[in-house]
Design a protein that fits this description.
This protein has helices at residues 15-27, 65-76, 142-162; strands spanning 49-54, 81-86, 97-105, 114-121, 127-133, 197-208, 213-226, 229-244, 247-265, 270-287, 297-312, 319-332, 334-338, 341-346, 349-359. An eight-stranded antiparallel β-barrel has the order 6-7-8-9-10-11-12-15. Strands 2-1-3-4-5 form a five-stranded mixed sheet, with helices on one face. Strands 13-14 form a two-stranded antiparallel ribbon. The chain is mainly beta. The chain has two domains: 15-162, Rossmann fold; 197-359, Porin.
Length: 361
């Protein structure tokens, strides 16, 4: 069950704590230094709980341990928590640690943007856990957003102990809303558009030089995003006809298309490249006004494979005009004949032009 709530901050009653917290907050995004463990020679006050952080075993570009520790010290300044020491490489807790913060990038990929955070009380085994999504957070603001989530878990764990209400073994919740960040710069090429679904309504014309055939039709295409790739599913129909001395031969087809490839986004346009496979069924029929001419009809399976490029402009609008170009080969085709001569059909290679509108919810 998802839980969403705004971060709550504890007030700092000591004036010196306020000054210290403000200074660390201003320095948080820019500090780059090696974290230093709390001195072991000076014992902590009895009411102070030492916080130990376990670095993620998966190295990911979305997580930076040093800025995160600096921001977490700011969030816990003035509270009864001593922040922070790093756990040793073996994973065991130190003798002075009271709370253990564990952070893992899930799944473990180089550009992973989902972080699983857990806070465990080493004295009684109570634990809180939360999934933090960083995909929509600017890279410079991710250390602070993650520190806010961890600090909130630490406070929640302490409040549950004071109220003497036994918490569940694991509490899952959605990530806290990230702190306000500066206005983002326009999306650069190579970064996927935040719209996860778009619908394209297109009219198309397809040229088949091998049979001197031009097909006209329409298509509805549905596009979604996965990382930097676009995934397409489309449905369409096409019609063509050829005239002969004996009469007219008509060619019709209905098809399902599947496409995949990279997406490039700029302020001016959305550009999709990729492969497209098409599976369908074609029908051929004849019509004549001559009494001594007999007509026949038939149908067969057809398939195509091509390269496609499409562009929608401008990128920021919910309704955008678009254009698409495609070229490829007919893998399994069908002909329409007059007097045993092919006069229309889908064989050889093809070129396609589509114009339409893209709609984003």
């Amino acid at each position: 069950m998802g839980i969403r709530r705004a971060p709550q901050r504890r007030s700092i009653h000591h004036p010196l704590g306020t000054v210290l917290s403000l200074a660390m907050f201003l320095a948080c995004p820019r500090v780059e230094a090696t974290p230093v463990a709390a001195p072991t020679s000076t014992p902590l006050p009895s009411a102070t709980r030492a916080v130990e952080v376990s670095s993620p075993s998966c190295a990911a570009s979305s997580f930076q341990i040093i800025p995160f520790l600096d921001c977490l010290r700011v969030e816990l300044a003035g509270s009864k928590h001593a922040c922070c020491t790093l756990a040793d490489s073996s994973g065991g807790a130190t003798a002075t640690a009271s709370l253990r913060v564990t952070i893992e990038v899930v799944p473990c990929v180089a550009d992973g943007e989902d972080v699983q955070v857990s806070v465990r009380d080493l004295s009684d085994g109570r634990e809180l856990e939360r999934a933090v999504g960083l995909a929509d957070v600017a890279p410079t603001a991710r250390p602070r957003a993650l520190a806010l989530a961890v600090a909130e878990l630490i406070r929640s764990l302490g409040e549950a102990a004071r109220d003497e209400v036994p918490p569940p073994a694991i509490v899952r919740a959605e990530a806290l809303p990230p702190a306000p960040t500066p206005t983002p710069t326009p999306t650069s090429p190579g970064v996927a558009r935040p719209d996860r679904l778009s619908v394209h309504l297109e009219g198309e014309t397809r040229l088949l030089p091998t049979r001197d055939t031009t097909m006209w039709g329409g298509r509805a295409r549905f596009t979604t995003l996965w990382r930097r790739l676009h995934l397409d599913v489309d449905l369409g129909v096409d019609l063509a006809s050829a005239h002969d001395d004996l009469g007219e031969v008509r060619f019709r087809s209905a098809s399902l298309g599947l496409g995949v490839g990279p997406r490039f986004v700029s302020r001016a346009a959305i550009l999709d490249l990729g492969l497209r496979a098409e599976l369908g069924w074609a029908w051929v029929s004849g019509q004549t006004s001559l009494a001594d001419v007999r007509t026949q009809a038939g149908s067969d399976f057809v398939s195509n494979l091509g390269l496609r490029v499409s562009a929608d402009v401008p990128a920021g609008m919910k309704v955008r005009p678009g254009i698409a170009l495609e070229a490829g080969l007919v893998l399994h085709g069908m002909d329409g004949e007059a007097s045993y001569r092919p006069v229309v059909g889908m064989t050889g290679y093809y070129a396609l032009l589509a114009l339409g509108l893209a709609l984003s919810p």
